[in-house]
């Protein structure tokens, strides 16, 4: 944690020094006030010296103004440093996540990345703010208070000897009991978030299966768990506040009880008693504040560790030191003896896969569910890196291209098309901000999306909900295809991107695509045989291996798996009459 904070607080070093000075000033002010007060009582009030009362009161006023200004400044600057550090850490964590490969993202999981970027960062932010605004002045106040209290009356210091350890033990014990519920509060808040997130996302499934009651019970369970632990924590916090006040007040009573008779005997001055009471309160409050902040440290340390884990993760697909560009114009995409395993998985998902996709041609990949098609496409777009073997584009290994070059060379339409909240136009311009409206309409036309966008109330400016929730699955796919086409890539990868289209649209789209991206290299993953039968080459993937490759007609003769895929599709009579080889 210290390393992370030292690095991140470096830009705020001057402000931190200034806060330290301000805290010192405000602590000195707080320490001076009781002594001045004692002076007013003893040498002004009791001595009936009005002049002394006024002069010392004026001085006290000046000290109070100075102390209050310094305290305000320290808290303001402390908040600025804390918030600045928070913003900085959030940006750094998000930046690190953006560099993650698909594998890194899967390893962490979305919910924890969100929690780490928000709540863990907040934990550190609060800790830094509390340290700068409260903890820094505590030692000055506590030590200064002890010295000055002794200066007022040594005999009463017995009360300090008892009160300080008692305060530490009481607060320490309560804090120890609060540690577990505070951690649990975090986990249970996470649980409520998780259930809620799942339920809101899956609301349609819940309705379809009429599982409302079941889900309500599930949410109520998580909600009650959260309330139970929050109540337990609240009770402990109430004890905490109560015990703190009790210790301070009992100590005050002890001081009055022990000091009062000594004043009556003339051994002690009234001002000293009042000053001693003030110092005692300051010392006890400082000790408690310091302990409260120190109590945050273990949780902040855990959060720092979780943030650090994200920041120090070496991206699974690192950028090369010096990126190279593939040749301009038509390029061949070659996958050579590519193998890949997901971390923790027993068997490799892809084994020694060979594939050549030539420019001006469409190469299709088919295979049963889980055969490794998406993984193979992810290797081609370098969302993942091969375990062994290679993927080259125009003879250049994809690992030698930086991300900008790669994304301008390869256009990927993923299996699950994602649209961002905004408008149709803002989504289409996502990868090509300069595109004109005319270009957008043209891309929409090729993607067979022009008609439905024209029919929308605001055309290109029609709002789109987060994730594309306000358009249908097929419309979302077509918009995602149009988005990829706008950027004019050398290689296009369509991962099951036509699955939600009806046959006619699918056919019209492929014909328009063939005209538009004629010289580009096109790789299509599809389940539907009609989508791929006209492909120049079809690669049949089975359990991560290339089982066969060739044209539709060739494969009907040579590949039993391909024949099975064709036979399984409704309305297909093509395999009739062909013997199983
Ligand atoms: N992040 C991951 N971690 C571990 N295993 C994974 C991960 N992603 C995919 N797999 C596994 O890898 C195998 C291949 O998955 P992949 O998504 O490449 O198959 P696919 O052929 O595209 O399937 P589908 O046709 O259903 O989309 C599957 O067995 C899957 O369970």
Automatic annotation (TrEMBL):
Q: Which InterPro entries match?
A: AAA+_ATPase, ABC1_TM_dom, ABC1_TM_sf, ABC_transporter-like_ATP-bd, ABC_transporter-like_CS, P-loop_NTPase, Type_1_exporter
Q: Which organism is it from?
A: Actinokineospora diospyrosa
Question: Which SMART domains does this UniProt record tie to the protein?
Answer: AAA
The major lineage groups are: Bacteria, Bacillati, Actinomycetota, Actinomycetes, Pseudonocardiales
**Ranges where the ABC transporter domain occurs:** 333-568
The protein's name: ATP-binding cassette, subfamily B
- Protein keywords: ATP-binding, Membrane, Nucleotide-binding, Transmembrane, Transmembrane helix
Note the topology in the membrane. Answer: Multi-pass membrane protein
Subcellular location(s) per record: Cell membrane
Molecular functions (GO terms): ATP binding
Q: Which residues form the ABC transmembrane type-1 domain?
A: 17-299
Where would one find the signal peptide in this protein?
Answer: none
**What domain of life is recorded for the organism?**
Bacteria
The record's annotation in Pfam families points to: ABC_membrane, ABC_tran
Please classify the protein's predominant subcellular localization into one broad category. membrane
Record-linked PANTHER family: ATP-BINDING CASSETTE SUB-FAMILY B MEMBER 10, MITOCHONDRIAL, ATP-DEPENDENT PERMEASE MDL1, MITOCHONDRIAL
Task: List the transmembrane segments.
Answer: 53-77, 126-148, 154-174, 236-258, 270-294
């Amino acid at each position: 944690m210290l390393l992370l904070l030292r690095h991140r607080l470096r830009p705020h070093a001057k402000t931190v020094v200034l806060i330290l000075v301000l805290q010192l000033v405000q602590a000195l002010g707080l320490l001076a006030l009781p002594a001045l007060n004692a002076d007013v009582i003893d040498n002004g009030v009791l001595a009936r010296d009005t002049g002394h009362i006024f002069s010392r009161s004026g001085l006290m006023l000046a000290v109070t103004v100075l102390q209050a200004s310094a305290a305000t400044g320290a808290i303001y600057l402390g908040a600025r440093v804390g918030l600045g550090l928070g913003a900085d850490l959030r940006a750094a964590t998000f930046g690190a996540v953006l560099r993650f490969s698909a594998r890194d993202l899967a390893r962490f999981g979305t919910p924890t990345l969100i929690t780490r970027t928000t709540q863990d960062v907040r934990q550190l932010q609060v800790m830094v703010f509390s340290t700068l605004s409260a903890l820094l002045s505590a030692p000055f106040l506590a030590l200064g208070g002890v010295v000055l209290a002794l200066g007022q009356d040594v005999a009463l210091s017995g009360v300090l000897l008892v009160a300080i350890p008692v305060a530490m033990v009481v607060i320490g014990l309560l804090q120890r009991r609060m540690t577990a519920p505070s951690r649990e509060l975090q986990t249970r808040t996470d649980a409520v978030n998780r259930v809620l997130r799942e339920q809101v996302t899956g609301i349609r499934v819940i309705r379809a299966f009429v599982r409302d009651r079941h889900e309500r019970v599930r949410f109520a369970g998580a909600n009650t768990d959260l309330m139970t632990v929050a109540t337990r924590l609240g009770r402990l916090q109430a004890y905490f506040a109560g015990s703190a006040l009790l210790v301070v007040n009992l100590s005050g009573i002890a001081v009055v009880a022990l000091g009062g008779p000594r004043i009556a005997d003339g051994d002690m001055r009234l001002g000293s008693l009042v000053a001693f009471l003030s110092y005692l309160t300051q010392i006890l409050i400082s000790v408690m504040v310091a302990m409260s902040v120190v109590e945050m440290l273990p949780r902040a340390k855990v959060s720092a560790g979780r943030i650090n884990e994200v920041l120090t993760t070496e991206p699974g697909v690192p950028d090369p030191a010096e990126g190279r560009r593939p040749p301009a114009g038509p390029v061949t995409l070659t996958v050579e003896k590519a193998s890949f395993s997901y971390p923790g998985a027993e068997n490799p998902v892809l084994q020694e896969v060979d594939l050549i996709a030539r420019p001006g041609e469409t190469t299709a990949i088919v295979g049963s569910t889980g055969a490794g098609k998406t993984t193979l496409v992810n290797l081609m777009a370098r969302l993942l890196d091969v375990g062994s073997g290679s993927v080259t584009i125009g003879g250049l290994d994809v690992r030698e291209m930086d991300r900008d070059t790669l994304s301008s060379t390869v256009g990927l339409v993923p299996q699950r098309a994602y649209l961002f909240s905004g408008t149709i136009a803002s989504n289409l311009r996502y990868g090509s901000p300069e595109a004109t409206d005319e270009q957008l309409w043209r891309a929409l036309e090729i993607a067979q999306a022009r008609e439905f966008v024209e029919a929308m109330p605001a055309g290109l400016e029609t709002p789109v909900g987060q994730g594309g929730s306000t358009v249908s699955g097929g419309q979302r796919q077509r918009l995602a295809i149009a988005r990829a086409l706008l950027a004019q890539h050398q290689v296009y990868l369509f991962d099951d991107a036509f699955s939600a289209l009806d046959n006619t649209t699918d056919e019209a789209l492929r014909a328009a695509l063939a005209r538009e991206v004629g010289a580009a290299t096109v790789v299509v993953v599809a389940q539907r045989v009609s989508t791929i039968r006209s492909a120049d080459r079809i690669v049949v993937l089975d359990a991560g291996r290339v089982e066969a490759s060739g044209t539709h007609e060739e494969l009907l003769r040579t590949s039993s798996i391909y024949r099975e895929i064709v036979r399984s599709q409704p309305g297909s009579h093509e395999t009739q009459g062909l013997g199983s080889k």
